[in-house]
Design goal:
The chain has 137 residues and is α+β, with helices and mostly antiparallel strands. Helix content is 26%, strand content 36%.
Amino acid sequence: MRIYFKELTFRTHKRRELVDITSEVERAVAESGVANGICLVFAPHATAAIIANEHEPGLMSDMLRKVEEEYPWDGRWEHNRIDDNAAAHLASAFIGSARVFPVKNGRIVRGTWQNIFLVELDGPRSYRRVIVEVLGE
């Protein structure tokens, strides 16, 4: 079994935003040399998440609006007594910091309209990491 590990870095520009990382993840899978296996995409942050969905501006706006509705920045969160970013922590925990994709014939398997996004929930940040780990034969 082959195991390939790559760390990607990104800069974000808004408090909440979607960063399309599909091409970087696909490049890592190609570099891995794995023909068939799985690809883990993981954001090692307590205030960021990973999703797969369509890269359509209206839908992207809708997703961010839904995050704001569910996890409003000005909510009465207990954690805000310590640090003013409870909404980001909550959104990350419920959205999820990782996704796993199949790898077949050296390519990540995703739906026609599925792109991979880093979800920034507490930006802007000058440094966000995404780990891509590819395992297989």
